[in-house]
Structure to design on (914 residues):
């Protein structure tokens, strides 16, 4: 590129002095974060010095201490732990699978695999014929063929779906429910296509949920290339496969939500929550999932303190202990909020990765949304607009007891997320500093507006 | 991420059957490109099998042949070369610089550097005191101190500027004009901060333009970390530096624009041009700059042919021979268009990298823009909107003789581009398949609409 081409974001004339004051404050926030932001350096520490942080692991324990020490250094009004119990699943070994027979002839084609989270041990190497199905309809139609076999679900994320989160939603049920659905008809193991958009062969783990009514059979995800090859090959040939997994559960672990607070000067009892989850899967550094949400949260606190901003309302910055396999962090936060008779007005979650921010998604009535959308001109210069649809796994339990709480989330460009989600490629090197910091800018700007005007303006 | 959050792109109700027909066609285009697209594979060939493609290099020659063969395989109505002369600059060796003295005390701190494009040889190792200036104002104020020294310009891309193209525009003049501006006052060499946003130490080359009135002194770009350190150190201490460059020019080279054409069935004399440039700098694979523009162009042709789309107007798919150091490809294309008395109605350039598309930028009157913006609802599901401001170096020469031609460009997310622009990190691995293909979808959709309705609808 030599000649200059760039995307001019229009900034409609602001109509009041109030809006001018806000646009100036948001400009200050943006300057502070884009120029002096520490999110990227904090993420390097979390991913490189601590690493993957499955609930129950020493790394997860260290991450909570790291989060507390670092948030204390920013000098908020309070920093505290919220102890909570979490599941304590262990992978237990190096998951293995291979094609060992084609039409009765021996072969040995090793497959790239990862056991799904919660998958139990295969108790040794298992071997069986594989039955390949495209979806649950095909499973039902062929249920009489399943007994004693290993079922493969072709759970691709269809590339034609522009928003990858939608494609993930479509395929998710094969990972979560596939194993028990197959076990119901006598399958002894399950393989799935990793819920991946990547043009590579990296398998992706992720939570699976056994149905207690059926045998708890081992389940693994195949790398995308291996999965597609197996799918095509099985159309023409009878394949035998071997697989071995080692998963088991220890007694529930003692973990901690880490909570920092800026106490409101005018309406201290109106609580706004921002958060991401500290835990990750064991197979990577948990960079985009959800290290970026963690450091977004910490960076907003840092920026507010650095700008000497004293909020009217109380703002909580929460690093949730456990989302991936149990969601116990969010449940504990909501439980204590109820116990302490708190008043929660809005919560925002960042758990879609640290990519370029595109929108603040808001779950509320159409009338409320319209009001929030008057803030779009203030956010647009930084890349986002206010749209319908927000929330997240960590903050959703708050809605049970706080009926009027508004659930929001940072929505980001979705094209790259499922290339590395739950794969070993979710590492620091795949996070871009500017994209990450721009996410923090937009969260801080939106939370500043919520603090100034509340949710019933 | 466990719970589903995604960005719902709203698709306003289309008001006419015509729009419904168009939305169906665009959906087909998108499905074809996202599911069967070849842009990513073509880019792998161009970057990995051919490599960097500076005008005058064997690689550039090979790239044109590769482009012709591949476009012929898609069976357009015509494929042809447009021979053109291009500059033929050679780097000539391994550029070198080091800090060798601090306050008169010898040291040896090697710096990461790249000579700027067009920089001539230093004719051996040169050594001098460095004078550090923030901008041209400071250079003018201190012009009497410059003689016999090496001038360093602190040409950072300010991180607070959200659109990185704007930051690049601000800093560009130090790379293009800095050397001659310093030579005017007797400087013997120039160093600049690479025009980079990256949190790394990779230097970035790029075109520099000597003013023939002043001595043609050698000029290099420093890696960002080394540049910032030198800037800080020079505030406190007197630094001596060494530098050596090897650049020279061979006689102009014979290169080729590669042009494919789908001839219009109703208005064959109304020409629409899409293009990107084949050449790149010598230091990388020219993946985002501008391999992605090349394969965008080829993919749109492939998709139209694959969908059996017969355009009403003539569509030209142009791989320009030379943009980086001379822009001779675009000049030749415009010269032949005039010579052949063609009628050009619109041109689109893709040269901002293969990142997630954000907009189709259009350079036209406000009244025309308003009409084009009626297409935004058709493009929005694929991530773009129609906004003001488009064009590019390769297509701009067309405006000289075709006063009414509409200049447009694909505008993409700008956060990552200047991390790798003209650096050795601009390689295939840093291009994302979905982002790349989504760019082709939006170009194809927009060009389809231009073909259907022309530019005066």
């Amino acid at each position: 590129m030599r000649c200059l081409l760039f995307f001019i974001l229009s900034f409609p004339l602001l109509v009041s002095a109030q809006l001018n004051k806000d646009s100036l404050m948001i400009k200050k926030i943006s300057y502070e974060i884009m120029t002096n932001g520490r999110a990227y350096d904090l993420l390097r520490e979390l991913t490189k010095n601590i690493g993957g942080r499955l609930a129950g692991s020493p790394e997860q324990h260290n991450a909570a201490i790291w989060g507390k020490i670092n948030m204390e250094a920013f000098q908020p009004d309070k920093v505290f732990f919220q102890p909570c119990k979490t599941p304590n699943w262990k992978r237990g070994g190096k998951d293995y699978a291979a094609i060992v027979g084609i039409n009765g002839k021996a072969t040995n084609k090793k497959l790239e695999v990862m056991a799904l989270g919660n998958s139990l041990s295969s108790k040794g190497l298992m071997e069986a014929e594989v039955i390949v199905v495209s979806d649950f309809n095909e499973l039902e139609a062929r249920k009489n063929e399943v007994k004693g076999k290993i079922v493969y679900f072709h759970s691709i994320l269809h590339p034609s779906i522009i928003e990858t989160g939608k494609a993930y939603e479509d395929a998710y049920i094969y990972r979560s429910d596939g194993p028990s659905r197959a076990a119901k008809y006598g399958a002894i193991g399950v393989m799935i296509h990793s819920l991946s958009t990547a043009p590579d062969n990296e398998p992706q783990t992720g939570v699976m949920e056994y149905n207690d009514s059926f045998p708890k059979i081992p389940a693994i995800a195949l790398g995308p290339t291996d999965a597609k090859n197996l799918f095509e090959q099985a159309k023409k040939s009878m394949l035998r496969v071997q697989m071995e997994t080692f998963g088991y559960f220890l007694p529930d672990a003692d973990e901690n939500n880490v909570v920092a607070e800026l106490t409101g000067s005018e309406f201290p009892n109106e609580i706004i929550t921002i958060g991401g989850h500290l835990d990750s899967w064991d197979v990577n550094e948990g960079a985009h999932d959800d290290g970026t949400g963690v450091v977004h949260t910490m960076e907003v606190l840092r920026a507010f303190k650095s700008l000497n901003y004293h909020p009217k309302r109380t703002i909580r910055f929460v690093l949730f202990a456990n989302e991936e396999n149990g969601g116990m962090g969010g449940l504990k936060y909501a439980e204590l909020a109820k116990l302490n008779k708190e008043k929660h007005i809005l919560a925002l979650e960042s758990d879609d990765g640290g990519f370029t921010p595109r929108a603040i998604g808001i779950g509320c009535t159409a009338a409320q949304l319209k009001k929030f959308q008057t803030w779009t001109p203030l956010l647009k210069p930084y890349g986002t607009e206010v749209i319908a649809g927000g929330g997240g796994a960590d903050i959703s339990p708050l809605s049970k007891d706080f009926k009027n709480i508004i659930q929001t989330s940072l929505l980001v460009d979705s094209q790259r997320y499922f290339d590395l989600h739950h794969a070993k490629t979710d590492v620091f090197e795949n996070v871009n500093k500017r994209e990450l910091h721009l996410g923090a800018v937009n969260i801080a700007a939106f939370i500043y507006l919520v603090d100034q005007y509340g949710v019933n303006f």
Notes: Residues 1-14 of chain A have pLDDT under 50 and may be disordered. The radius of gyration of chain A is 23 Å. The longest helix of chain A spans residues 433-453.
